[in-house]
Amino acid sequence: MPVDSPTRRAMMAGLAALPFGESTAAPGAKVRTLVAYFSRSGNTRVIAGVIERAQHAQLFEIRPARAYPADYFDTVEQARQERDRGDRPPLADTLASLDGYDTVYLGFPVWGETVPPVVRTFLSQHGWQGKTLIPFITHGGYGPGDCQAQLAKRAPGATIRPAFVLEADQERRTTTSVTTWLKTID
């Protein structure tokens, strides 16, 4: 299905509107799987919700304490600066520990060909020894960059499975299309 089809857009909007705040695990069941994700535009959030429901997992949204700018290009610049300085921005919420989880699905968009700074913060807050880490990564057309190597470096002791990688460049393509169109207007 083309990324710009009305059917796909309606499906993505419907998935994005589903509630993601609580686990879908059966009452009384011990949840051993976590889906942690960071999403700026909603693409990664949709994937996280699908995984949460399919795996009967607990969901945790990684959010910076100070939100990134609403403007796409301002966010890109801020993320570049954070990356270049090696920042680990504080998170809005923290997860006490990973002790109750065997498997962690970790989702994020690629920023500057690497793991976003807020996800580096999340990784640094936890011990990964004996955990299985399964990344799911969205990107705007440049691929996963060095994300797999960064995860290996920042989650020592984890068994890192191959990532699910999806090009989700709608925001960048939309911005480019609108900018090109605006140039045609006198």
Model description:
This protein has a single domain, classed as Rossmann fold (3-Layer(aba) Sandwich), CATH 3.40.50. The chain has helices at residues 6-17, 43-55, 72-85, 117-124, 147-154, 170-183, and strands spanning 33-37, 58-61, 103-109, 132-139, 159-160, 164-167. The radius of gyration is 17 Å and the shape is globular. With 186 residues, it is α/β, with parallel strands linked by helices. The chain has six helices and six strands. Strands 1, 2, 3, 4, 5 and 6 form a six-stranded parallel sheet that branches. Helix 4 links the parallel strand 3 (103-109) and strand 4. Mean pLDDT is 84; it is low at 13-25.
Give the overall pLDDT as a whole number: 84
How does the overall form come out from the CA principal axes?
Answer: globular
Instruction: Using the CA coordinates, give the radius of gyration.
Output: 17 Å
In CATH terms, what is the fold-level topology?
Rossmann fold
Q: Compute the number of helices.
A: 6
CATH class category label = Alpha Beta
